[in-house]
User: Fold these one by one.
Assistant:
Number 1:
Amino acid sequence: MKHTHTIPVHILSGFLGSGKTTLLTRALDYYQLNGRKPAVLMNELGEVNLDGMQVSAEVPMTEMLGGCICCTIRGDLGLELKQLIDEHQPDVVFVESTGAANPMEMLDGVTDASLLTRVELASVVTVVDAALFAEKSESPKSRTYRLMADQIRCATLILFNKTDLVPPSEWLRLEALIRELNPSAPIVRTVRSEIDFTLFDRLEGGVVRHHRDNALGCTCAEGHSHHEHPDDHGCAVHHAEHSGHSEDAAKAAHHSHDHVMAYTHFFTRAIDSERFEALVGRLPDNIFRAKGILRFTDTASPFMFQYAYRQMDFMKIAPKENVPSVAVFIGEHFDRSVLETELTALECSES
Ligand SMILES: Nc1nc2c(ncn2[C@@H]2O[C@H](COP(=O)(O)OP(=O)(O)OP(=O)(O)O)[C@@H](O)[C@H]2O)c(=O)[nH]1
């Protein structure tokens, strides 16, 4: 069946654990309550789509797992998006990528899709973890800060999230830093990504116009030139590629996050909750994100586990399907085998 109208696509960007899935689940509720049919394209670094489990089964979803959209599987994004739309005829699509992705590459994927089917990039919403941003802005040359900066630069709407973790006296200073990186996107202060979703309706006028007006010149959505981009801008990657230096572009695309890796551990039996918590409490700083579905020997129901920026959360869940007990750990250059040994040891009855 042919679409008769253009389908808006929202890209949800933001560093690992910043609050993208929290935003997505709220957005899906909003659209469904208003009688519109959303669909989701989700990309995760780990081998299991844990974020996807937070999305209701009636929302059509395409999963791209085990790699990052912006590099290893970027070529597929346009086609996956087209397939999702052809099959389910949604009114709106959300693309949630790994927090390690550079949004410019996703913009490319959506642009590819727009050549194949009637889609329009409506917005790039970047969720900023206020506490992490405060810490990383102290070392602006760090790879994490540079990636966060790229994500902020390419946004058409910025959620300054997790404001509950930063003293209000810091908010204005941090927002001014964000404003330096992105002079035009509205910045909305949020806790748990709670915003007025009528903003999304307004964004559905199209992202291209915004970028044309943006002093930083993220005109990439149209595939035009990027001469105005400073060298350290995320879009410089794009520029190199369009000028035919695809190898250089690929290397450049990796510059900001090739250090990020994931380890997925499947548990073969229930584990002790206190020993697991103690293990997570001892995780080195270079493992900064983890999530999972866990079954404990000392509790009746399974739990969804979240760990972001040293904060641990456990939420009772009642999984519909036979989901595995699994945890994904994401960080920089960490030793998988040490972690694997420690996690496997949890499966032995006594330490
Ligand atoms: N304190 C606090 N926690 C938050 C806030 N927003 C989200 N969280 C928590 O942070 C954790 C990560 O949130 P997610 O929405 O899964 O983050 P994400 O960006 O989707 O994470 P990745 O997909 O791994 O990149 C969860 O435990 C959330 O409950 C907030 O405003 N304040």
Number 2:
Amino acid sequence: MPLSDPPVISAHRLSKHYGDFHAVDGISFDVPAGESFGLLGPNGAGKSTTMRMIGGVSQRTSGELTIMGLDPEEHGPEVRAHLGVVPQQDNLDEELRVRDNLLVYGRYFGLPMSYLRPKADELLEFAQLTEKSGAKVDALSGGMKRRLTIARSLINEPKILLLDEPTTGLDPQARHVLWDRLFRLKESGVTLILTTHYMDEAEQLCDRLVVVDKGRIMAEGSPAQLIRDHSTREVLELRFGSERNTTVAAELQGIGERLEPLPDRVLIYARDGEEALEQVISRGLKPVTSLVRRSSLEDVFLRLTGRSLID
Ligand SMILES: Nc1ncnc2c1ncn2[C@@H]1O[C@H](COP(=O)(O)OP(=O)(O)OP(=O)(O)O)[C@@H](O)[C@H]1O
């Protein structure tokens, strides 16, 4: 995209208050066309509230928001024509069969059957649900329902797809199938805006993301950039047993660049985890388990907030 192109979504000091409670507290971000942009944060961070404001179903308290240059509160129908929405909870019509869910949804957009029939078949193929075309929705697995919800959101060929926690509650295999479909959409040029509290999902899918906590943006960047800026290359995870994890910290001082004692383990942030482990052992300390891994967005979140992403 040329640098001069305006962002497809632009939020400036966007806020949503419920009484005295600031669910979204002055967040600003721009999303260029074709980007896969994430809001990563724990439960209650304000991610869904932000998505609802983008989708035009929740009014902001203050700030500015434009979608394709339009204010969703003033131009609801025009904005919605550009958007596909995948809400946190699947809201499929359980009574209808799989293909009919797509056809009926398409009718809400006033799309003619001559367009909808071939489009529904194309989307079912994309969602790997062709064989389930005539099945009742309540007979589908969780992953299949999620893919059908995504297929349905694409019926009007939206330029922007809003995905609120697309894989929460799915098993690892179903998540991978879904990620693959989302990759394909991204390749086809659809702008993806997704919320997640899974760091691996954010790392897999997002070109760029904002880390949100308590309605505020704590950091912004690509996953690799965030990890580089806020963590070390490797992390050594040690478990000493529940009593010892917090008391052992004093004996680990000076190893690695930073120490993070948690109730269930101690994290040592270091450029070289194996070297850090050698130092631990050379001090005569004997962890029950040890693991060297690469830093992740979970470590970034812990560094920025002092808390874990998953409650
Ligand atoms: N209608 C409402 N009235 C009062 N408080 C609300 C309302 N809707 C949301 N909240 C509060 O706003 C905060 C942000 O909620 P939101 O659903 O946006 O969080 P989230 O980051 O999407 O988390 P989750 O993954 O749990 O949905 C929460 O503390 C929630 O309880």
